């Protein structure tokens, strides 16, 4: 039996991980530490028994230390992060505070509890990072591996690179038992509707434009969040201490192809289910038109990386990890989830409109 702190566990990937871990390890103790910014949502944890939500800041080292002591925590899975690149361009300070200073706060608390005062028992600090720390690839460049030099191009990716280096330093300098995973673009249930897939699905349902940066040919590797959680589980159970593992979905696609799949998927759903036209009358598909009519090309984002791709041979060969879904299957599951969970996302849309 393990005692876990999951930081950012009320956010997108963190909440999916908590659901996953509760299913595979039902006897473990889980404390979710989340400050509940705009992207943190207690409703993401609905239906979970034996999960304690603590509303607090990872920068509060004393709070983290208290939680570790009070709950005899031996495992920290660190998801908490500011992660939206557009927001990092307009407001980078929050990214440095949360992603760098917050990670350092957690590392200090873990070192004090497990090494300075600890009994020497096994422990784990797992840090969840991004492929964006590696920079941008050309069309013919080899995919990112764990040995690719860091070359972050946005305040977001620079702050995550800083946190990665701190985790590495605490392992090599102090002996903290750490692992790190760098993942590709996640999608799936509970994703806050600022990222491409949920944003475009919900825009399409309400008849709003689908804004495509530049020529739409920026390439990303797409990873369903449940497959990502499976990968993290493998690292926690079998990963080598001090190692980094890249977790990808093996689905390298240009943004425009993802957008076209969204449009096709929504059109097909409306064609098959007339009730959707009643629920979402502003959608072009409700009026017999094609969702693709909403596509709108806009000025490219500043410093927009052209291509990401993950070389995941290390986690495949060492830990026998393989994603279970291709993009077509994963997106179909995601679209069904959002169509069936208007109760989850509609309050977020309403709140955003009231705040605007």
Automatic annotation (TrEMBL):
Its EC number is 4.2.1.46. Keywords: Lyase, NAD. It comes from the Bacteria. GO terms for molecular function: dTDP-glucose 4,6-dehydratase activity. GO terms for biological process: nucleotide-sugar metabolic process. InterPro entries: dTDP_Gluc_deHydtase (IPR005888), NAD(P)-bd_dom (IPR016040), NAD(P)-bd_dom_sf (IPR036291). The keyword NAD applies. Residues 5-334 form the NAD(P)-binding domain. It catalyses: dTDP-alpha-D-glucose = dTDP-4-dehydro-6-deoxy-alpha-D-glucose + H2O. Its cofactor is NAD(+). Belongs to the NAD(P)-dependent epimerase/dehydratase family. dTDP-glucose dehydratase subfamily. PANTHER family: DTDP-D-GLUCOSE 4,6-DEHYDRATASE-RELATED. This is dTDP-glucose 4,6-dehydratase. It comes from Sphingomonas paeninsulae. The gene is rfbB.
């Amino acid at each position: 039996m393990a005692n876990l702190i999951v930081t950012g566990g009320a956010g997108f990937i963190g909440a999916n991980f908590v659901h996953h871990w509760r299913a595979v390890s039902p006897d473990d103790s889980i404390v979710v530490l989340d400050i509940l910014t705009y992207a943190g949502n207690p409703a993401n944890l609905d239906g979970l028994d034996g999960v304690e939500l603590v509303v607090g800041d990872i920068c509060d080292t004393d709070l983290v230390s208290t939680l570790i002591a009070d709950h005899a925590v031996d495992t920290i899975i660190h998801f908490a992060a500011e992660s939206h690149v557009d927001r990092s361009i307009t407001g980078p300070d929050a990214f440095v505070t949360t992603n760098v200073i917050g990670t350092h706060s957690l590392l200090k608390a873990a070192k004090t509890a497990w090494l300075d005062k600890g009994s020497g028992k096994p422990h784990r600090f797992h840090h969840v990072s991004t492929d964006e720390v590696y920079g941008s690839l050309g069309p013919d460049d080899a995919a990112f591996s764990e040995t690719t030099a860091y070359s972050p191009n946005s305040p977001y990716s620079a702050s995550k690179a800083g946190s990665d280096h701190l985790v590495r330093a605490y392992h090599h300098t102090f002996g903290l038992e750490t692992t790190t995973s760098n993942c590709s673009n996640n999608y799936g249930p509970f994703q806050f509707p600022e990222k491409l897939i949920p944003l475009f699905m919900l825009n399409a349902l309400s008849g709003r434009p689908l804004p495509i940066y530049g020529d739409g040919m920026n390439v990303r590797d797409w990873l369903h969040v449940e497959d990502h959680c499976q990968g993290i589980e493998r690292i926690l159970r079998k990963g080598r201490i001090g190692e980094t593992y890249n977790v990808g979905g093996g689905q390298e696609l240009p943004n425009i192809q993802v957008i076209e799949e969204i449009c096709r998927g929504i059109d097909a759903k409306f064609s098959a289910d007339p009730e959707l036209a009643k629920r979402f009358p502003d959608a072009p598909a409700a009026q017999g038109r094609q969702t693709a009519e909403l596509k709108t090309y806009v000025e490219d984002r500043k410093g927009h990386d052209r291509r990401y791709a993950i070389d995941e041979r290390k986690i495949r060969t060492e830990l026998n990890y393989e994603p279970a879904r291709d993009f077509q299957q994963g997106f179909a599951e995601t679209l069904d989830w959002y169509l069936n969970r208007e109760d989850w996302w509609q309050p977020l849309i309403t709140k955003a409109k009231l705040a605007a």
